[in-house]
Automatic annotation (TrEMBL):
Residues 13-142 form the Flavoprotein domain. Pfam families: Flavoprotein. The lineage of its organism: Bacteria, Bacillati, Actinomycetota, Actinomycetes, Kitasatosporales. Gene3D superfamilies: Flavin prenyltransferase-like. InterPro entries: Flavin_trans-like (IPR036551), Flavoprotein (IPR003382). This is Flavoprotein domain-containing protein. SUPFAM superfamilies: Homo-oligomeric flavin-containing Cys decarboxylases, HFCD. GO terms for biological process: coenzyme A biosynthetic process.
Amino acid sequence: MTEQAARKPFLYIVVCAAGIAADVSKLITAAQERDWEVGVIATPVAMNGFFDTAAVEAQTGRPIRSAWRTPGEPRPFPAPDAVVVAPATFNTVNKWAAGIADTLALGTLCEVAGLGVPVAVLPCVADALASHPAYRDSLERLRGMGVRFGQPYTGEPDEDGGRPEFGWERALDLVERG
Ligand SMILES: Cc1cc2nc3c(=O)[nH]c(=O)nc-3n(C[C@H](O)[C@H](O)[C@H](O)COP(=O)(O)O)c2cc1C
């Protein structure tokens, strides 16, 4: 088998600055179990204490990408076969839908619209923010671009005081749907 034929499909996981990002290793584990090679791209705010960056780098075997590379540097990851944004914040969803590309995460997301690869998003957005009309417009615009969304998740405790499960694996189901 050639090296090209043996290559596992490459999944970008874009991590935003939501509290639930602390559990992103669950998504990485699930993706690796499904035979994805994983590269993590995080927003600059997410790099600032929202998840264990050293553990994620050890888990993926690759540096997390957050800052722009310099013009002379090679692209750090292969082109993606699929992209998952989890967790996705209110801020990143709105900026992405508006075509703003002022972080590596957003630039990557804006660009994948033209690559024809599956893109799945698991938002973590409180109900109060989700009711903002700009957010509703952003979801509609991204859906119109073919982006696939998991169930809304507010990050808030349920009636029992527990926190509902964040459906990490749903993102993989969505990109594997074909
Ligand atoms: C502890 C903490 C938890 C947060 N959780 C969320 C969240 O679940 N969803 C969200 O949209 N914003 C959340 N925020 C606010 C975002 O971090 C903030 O809007 C930030 O600008 C998002 O940046 P990013 O989209 O570039 O990652 C949280 C902030 C803090 C300090």
